[in-house]
User: What shape does this take?
Amino acid sequence: MSWHPHLWHPTTQVATSPVPLQVRRARGCELELADGRRLIDAISSWWVTLHGHAEPSIAASIARQAQQLEQVIFANFSHQPAEQLATRLSALTGLQRLFFSDNGSTAIEVALKIAWQWWTNQGQSRQQLIAFDGAYHGDTFGAMAVGERSLFTAPYEPLLFEVCRIAWPHTSWGDATVEAREQQALSQLEQALRTPTAAVILEPLLQGASGMRLVRPAYVRAVAERVQASGALLIADEVMTGFGRTGALFACQKAGVQPDLMALSKGLTGGFLPMGVTMASERLYQGFIGNKAELTFFHGHSFTANPLGCAAALASLDLLQNQPERYQQFEPRHSPLLEVLAQHPRVVRPRCLGTIAAFDVKAGDDGYLNPVGKQLQRLCLEMGVYLRPLGNTVYLLPPLCISDEQLQRCYDALNRALDQLA
Ligand SMILES: Cc1ncc(COP(=O)(O)O)c(C=O)c1O
Assistant: This one.
């Protein structure tokens, strides 16, 4: 096997990475490789495959839509799948307006631009944006700017706009220090909000890419109260946490928070098609209406409201609404297995939220460049389980269809791989 002469893979250093595995097909939780091997996709293919690969009702919905209307320009035209999706997501999120884009990063760009321009349209100057340590909001420039500055963003540093940063008091089982850290972070936020602030952006309850870093719902609530009391807009990045991943349909609901803007993608189409949406309150929408052209939100993508993506999203919502117990009752499936794994001497900071279980491996420095994750990935692959640790943070985030037996196999593989670590 060798690298393809014409492809360029994402976030991959060719000099040090193994050649990508050839996938032939996928069903449910399993990827079937060209050589016949089967792997459990324990991370839902970068957190997108919500119900399972090739979920029949979503595949059928896309096929039906493809024969009806595959794509149409969304300026000057509208269509039923987009309208139905907007109506349903509006009812579910409490945010009346839906703006389409193509992925999680663009959903964030749209949220930032709406927030910024809304203040401009009001004739008010609020020049500060606030984000959190460890945040990840995507790889486009605006999304990088509000994300944590890291190895990923270093080459672009001169091009990234400035953001005020607040500590993220993440926690895990048995953490005795969290309350004090939350208080410190809240004081920092109060101080920062004394500067007129356009918007505050956060990943509610869980920062994904920086290492599955959980905060307590009460902290998210306390942040939202302070932000909203200051008049700043609250942007919830639910690209990863949305659609049941945290055990509630949206993490904001679990935290008891109503944001002004919400970015969604990944599980939106059940993981079938690339689509992002930014939900906005009616108050924000109204701020863009008027006779002056400059009030307009001049933003649009070629594939805005792609009907196939809408059809997939509608079918995915049907599944979520018909079987809410599949995400609501996932955490009790993880917890006992994680409790056992947490006894392993290499496991520290076990944590669990809805469909997501994570821990850190005691092995040198914490962080993305810690090689232990790659070692564990290799060992688990040999046992038929596909993982993609974030440095020394290991997590399981499987599709909802995973069986108890498959989930047990993931934990068993991890246990054995941890034993085999040098
Ligand atoms: C919280 C969060 N926001 C935004 C993004 C960016 O989404 P995309 O990769 O679809 O651009 C991600 C991707 O992992 C994410 O986890």
